[in-house]
Amino acid sequence: MKCTDASEMLFKPNGVFSQSISLQIEGFSSYSMMEGVSSYSMMEGVTGGWSPQVTDRHPWLQLDLRDRIEVTAVATQGRYGSSDWVSGYLLLFSDTGRAWKQYRQEDGVGRFVGNVNADGVVHHKLSHSIRGRFLRFVPLDWNPSGWVGLRVEVYGCAYKSDVADFDGRSSLLYRFNQKSMSTVKDVISLRFKSRQAEGVLLHGEGQRGNYITLELHRARLALYLNLDDTRLRFSSGRVAVTLSSLLDDQHWHSVLIERFNKQVNLTVDTHTQHFRTKGEGDSLEVDYELSFGGIPLPGKPGTFLRKNFHGCMENLYYNGINIIDLAKRRKPQIYSGNVTFSCSEPQLVSTTFLSSSSSFLSLPATLSASGGFAVRFQFRTWNPDGLLLSTRLALEPQRLELQISNSRLRLTHHMSAQQKEEVSTGEGQQVNDGLWHSASLSSRGLQVTMTLDNEPSSTMELGDHMEAGDSLYFGGCPSLNVSGCENPTLAFQGCMRLFSINSQPMDLNLVHQGRLGDYKELQFDTCGIHDRCLPNFCEHGGQCSQSWSCFYCDCSGTGYTGATCHNSIYEASCEAYRLTGSSSGYFSIDPDGSGPLAPTLVYCNMTENKVWTVVTHNSTDPVRVQGSTLQKPYIMKFNYSASPEQLLALVSGSEQCQQEVMYSCRKSRLFNTRDGSPLSWWVDQGGERRTYWGGFLPGVQQCSCSLEENCMDMNYFCNCDADTDSWSNDTGVLSYKEHLPVSEIVIGDTNRTGSEALYRIGPLRCYGDKSVWNAASFYQESSYLHFPTLQAELSADISFYFKTSAPSGVFLENVGLKDFIRVELSSPFAVTFSFDVGNGPVVLAIKSHVPLNDRQWHYVRAERSVKEASLQVDQLPLRFLEAPSEGHLRLRLNSQLFVGGTAARQRGFLGCIRTLTVNGVTFSLEERAKMTPGVSAGCPGHCSGSSSLCHNSGRCIEKNSGYVCDCSQSAYGGPSCKEEVSVSFNRESSVTYTFQEPFSVMQNRSFQASSVYRGNSRAGENMAFIFMTTQSPAMLLTVSTFSQQYIAVILARNGSIQIWYHLHVDRRPDVFSPRPSSLADGRLHRIRIHREGKDVYLQDMNLKYSLSPDTEFISIKSLTLGKVTVDTMDEEVMQAGSKGFIGCLSSVQFNHMAPLKAALLNRASSLVSVRGHLVESNCGALADSTIFHSQSDHSETVGRGRGPLRNASQSNYAVIGGVVSAVVFISLCVVAVMTRFLYQHRQARRDASIKEKEHRTNLETAYRREAAYRAEPAYRTEFHLHDSHSSTLNDNREYYI
């Protein structure tokens, strides 16, 4: 019977228990005021309650339910007729009354909300029931004007179970009635509590390679399951599915295994993992028997292959059979060796050290009969640092410290303030893994020995005999340094147990009662360790690590970043890369952003007005086909460089897609000329057969020649259907994007004499990004768009652009019963992001120094995860707020998502919103706007379309009579941010841009998880520039910090490029050499470097490198182009720096800074320092017409002609003639170049003086020109005004745009 209706099962509202069970109440206090009836009694109209004495340090109220009970709910009330109540408390439970476990609600929340007065009743239904005999209520907060007062009520029902105790040498064997048992469906359930971290719970195997093993390994549950695969049985590569952790806590845990064929569900407590098992069959065949508690050797009872389980099991069921019940009734199919049927309870009592700064336990150092001392204890923790033990020695000021340092155990003998001696455990012996470890210290003679677990001991030699002082301090030191005890870094946060001093066990109950030693910030009788990586909140394959109070995500190599690896580091499309100023090349794109799909590598062709995304496949060369029939057709399946899911996301997000099909034929038809049935076809991305071969709509069996009315025989719709002996061509372009790409081609008519076909399927090509300019205009305050409820329980990122002239308005809102999420323009100068997940409202606001209701586009990005929340507006500094370490995690919403307004139709937004994306999914605002009153699709204005008026990260700004391009964030200039900013350097030239203050690279707030824990550095930078030189070695760029860190990009002696990252002053720098060939070849090269944490990406070369761990690059001081004379860099970098740079630099960008442009436009600025001779150049203008040699060329291997391929021998004479002509031409060019060189050499001196004068004139002219553009006071940046008198808008809704 399930305990479902708790209010009728255990306690009636009048306090009468529905079954014959009595309670014993214990209030821990030197004096407890207990008035009236017992504390579980009726709370309505009953006097009394429990209240401890005010001198109690840590009071609690304990209930003894006399037997194990399934508790499903609790309720609390204050003390009757008083001002005493508890406003927050913890709930602990136990089977023995000694070893306690804290109950955690959903999301791991341990705190229960209590009362706000003495009379109200607060009821909590438990999300998962408690099975135990003892309950303990621990007050955390109470009425500040009164004291602790409590009445409690417990709801539940009786709990019965069949229990078996395994002593580590015993097992249960369940023998089958037949030789083997074969099943296609299995259900195995049990509950266990273990005294150790290792042990086999269940095992069975068959002769055909089948096996099932369930065991504890490092306190995690591992399931090995294989069906009919003998290779895995005898190999060492068996793969386990592991789940849960900390299962050796001596508390009950439930396990459920459900299998149907190969599909398996493994559930441990509240966590479930789904997987498919290995093997070739669908049935599990086990021979003879199943063993529980161990794996016995055949024919040798009591001898086991692996470590046996030591602990208790209850309610053990195998496919509906109660195994323990059969064993208790001594049924013949059960063999029970040394198994008893009551659970023995060990007296292992743990203590939790709660604070990393103030927790400590002081115990007296008992005398040893043999002299010296010996200390032993066990501990478990997640923290890599913390003090375990400190004692002052008899010879002052000497002291001995045992601590965890960098995850290893370290013993330090402090002989004086300056002199000390240390020994540590081995490199691989990390102790912050959450497991129990045993540590011991002993002194004998002139030696101190440190031992960890069963590892070899470490010994330290002493100069004199050692005796401990009066007290031993465990876990930390008192705040008053009266004992000579000092925390080296942090106090210990974790659990300890089994204290023994000079072979005398310590009774912590005496400590708790104040009769032995001293303590602070401890929790007795329980180990409060909690696995914060279960479940793993790190997304996209991020690796989770943790400390006692927090978890961290290592996003290295995932392509994502952020506190939980939620945000993609790549742009969503080639169109987005173009808007950032990129040129053609290979790029990784992430069409669904933070969604589940991984990034994919594509080629972005940006040489045309349209930006084409090109995805290749495995067969791009022409293929000749012969000998195929309709019964045995030729079939080719195409494997693309992207997965089907990625292709679908790319195609659906593009404006248009197309794919060329080149098909040449000779006596090979596409359609049967008699009945029109297809003889060849292709298969679309959804697996459907398609028979059209050009741009026609689906379902029309025709080719391109029919569309263009130029088929060679007008009686047919395809040239190939004329069935001639000569070559024909039916090349066409497929452009119905819902069917693309082509996944398979089938050819079935090339088996006749002289019959053959030649085909080529081109790459998938798409252009446009439908999300970029998907916009809606809101012109009534009561209007809004509604969408389905946000699926954002654990994480949500919301981004969009807006423009308005209204002073305030709600951009979007979604609410639940109590939870909500909202983004709004709260004032003309502020954007606010607010939400509540159950811990109280959280508000992040960013204030701008300029109005945001200026009718210009502004970018907003709000993100919320279980780790933190952030808000970004334009390029203003990000706002971060960390989530509480203990609190609710899930955002529970149940209403529709309202965009541009609220459900109450108040505070609606007036203006335009575009590119609304939530968790990588772009909302179609235009489609919803077409059917919603008060909202229209699109947005009026010059800057509201996809025409890309401003290039290279330039920002389009609306004006009454046109628009201007703000090029301040771009390395380019000119009216449309397309004009190159290039400078020629000589050996002595340099440009240094000094940042005004220590500059956080990505404008993050400092990461408070300091070096104590291995956090994830989210710092990074973007660098891009174009250069041309013939010099090597040469210094291109250096970035230095206030702490002697630096980044350098140099050309080595051989002309190859080198990238130096020196982010640790005490380590060797990371040096990357992407390409061994020389780039000092007098040609233009583009370099683009992007770093995100430890990952460095060279985007034009499609390369990735990883820096040394724990890297962070903050507080930037300056950036220098050209010659560097500082002596704090490595020798090779200094040598390149002293040589400077001779050549041309163009389009230099560092994050949002353009230092080269700043040097030209703001020469008088104190932030810019120019040395040597600089000449404004136009070498960057060649970039538009030159193929950059730092990236791969993308060209198609076959022409687009409609004719068949010619015989290769027909072109030999043409090739020979071409070679001869080329030789003659090159010879003439060499003569011309030499002549030109001699002339230039003669005129060099005269030209130098002329160029210097021209350079000064050019700089002055450029400065005056740009200063005129910067005269607009509202923006103070580089603007270019475009008049547009012919496009005046008469719409009366224009007032807010």
Automatic annotation (TrEMBL):
Indicate the segments forming the Fibrinogen C-terminal domain, all copies: 565-617
Q: Which domain of life is it from?
A: Eukaryota
- What sections of the protein cross the membrane? 1213-1239
The alphabetical list of record keywords is: Disulfide bond, EGF-like domain, Membrane, Repeat, Signal, Transmembrane, Transmembrane helix
Q: Which CDD domains match?
A: EGF_CA, FA58C, LamG
According to the entry, every stretch annotated as the Laminin G domain falls at 163-343, 350-527, 774-939, 997-1179
Its subcellular locations are: Membrane
- List residues of the F5/8 type C domain: 3-157
Listed under GO cellular component are:
membrane
Task: Give residue ranges for domain EGF-like.
Answer: 529-566, 940-978
Pfam families reported in the protein's UniProt record:
F5_F8_type_C, Laminin_G_2
Principal cellular location given in the protein's record:
membrane
Name the SUPFAM superfamilies for this protein.
Answer: Concanavalin A-like lectins/glucanases, Fibrinogen C-terminal domain-like, Galactose-binding domain-like
Topology in the lipid bilayer: Single-pass type I membrane protein
InterPro entries referenced in this protein's UniProt entry, alphabetically: ConA-like_dom_sf, EGF, FA58C, Fibrinogen-like_C, Fibrinogen_a/b/g_C_dom, Galactose-bd-like_sf, Laminin_G, Neurexin-related_CASP
Disulphide connectivity of cysteines: C912-C939
To which protein family does this belong? Belongs to the neurexin family.
Q: What protein is this chain from?
A: Contactin associated protein-like 5a
